[in-house]
Design a protein that fits this description.
With 301 residues, the chain is mostly helical. It folds into 3 domains: 107 residues, EF-hand (Recoverin, domain 1); 128 residues, EF-hand (Recoverin, domain 1); 37 residues.
Length: 301
Amino acid sequence: MVSEAIKPTTHAAHEQLASTEVLRGVVLQMHEAFPKVCLAWNLKSSMNKNWKILFERLDTDGSGRLDYDEFAGALAEVLKIDVPEDHLKALWAYVDHDKSALVSIEEFQHACYLLLLDEWPTLGEDRLSSICVVINDAAVHEFSKEGSGVMSGNWFQIFNKFDTDESGRLGFEELEGVARMRDPGLNLAQKDLSTHDLKGLWKAIDADCSGDVTVDEYMHFMKAHGPQMHQLTDYSKKMRGISLGEGPKVLPDLNDEEREAAEALPVAALRWVVLRMHDAFPKICLARVSASFDRGDPGTA
């Protein structure tokens, strides 16, 4: 993750002494080695956290920065991978964006993330919108099973389901993990949502290439591409018993603001409010009758 005070760099802004494919190949070698290292250290491997894990182990002076020799040694001695020296130096030149000869944890993991992200697909607007519909409908269907139903188009609720570490930020592993897993999860197989499309969605949401997505970034994207609370999808209409043909419109007598307010709470919560209102009516009616008796109104005797 890049510090919020510093605007993340883009792939095109980094020096390349070798092709992107060569640089990406080195990064992929390192990523393939990480699971074994993390297993030995009893840690969970994660695309955007692996470098932090490695740096913390190697940074014996606590400076948070490594030089080229320390980095080269880490690959050979810790990750135990063999990389041609010219490839390794080319990767270092790409990573050391400010040419300080020292690289921080944030610089390194961000540069490696950029190399991986560059290969991920760039999807068109229509495809992105259709993927958002798939995620929305799956969230409404799957999360209703656990009794904490998600309202169709309530992307804040859906974000909280994806944000498994409750950090207020979303990583690709969280997005992919919740999309694939069952109970609680979206239980989406490859045929429902391919890894290709999931990577394309992530690349579009993470427009600043920071490596993670804030709730504001996520909400802004979904507001532009996904179904909104007053725009029910076919699946949501079916679940509510609403005709998909030329039947009556959803909440036809409400304007957009009123319709959104009506959709802001789950049905169960709205029902609870109505029941509380009904419970209060007998007391109100009794009070009115008592007042009429006190005043001696006709017809109350």
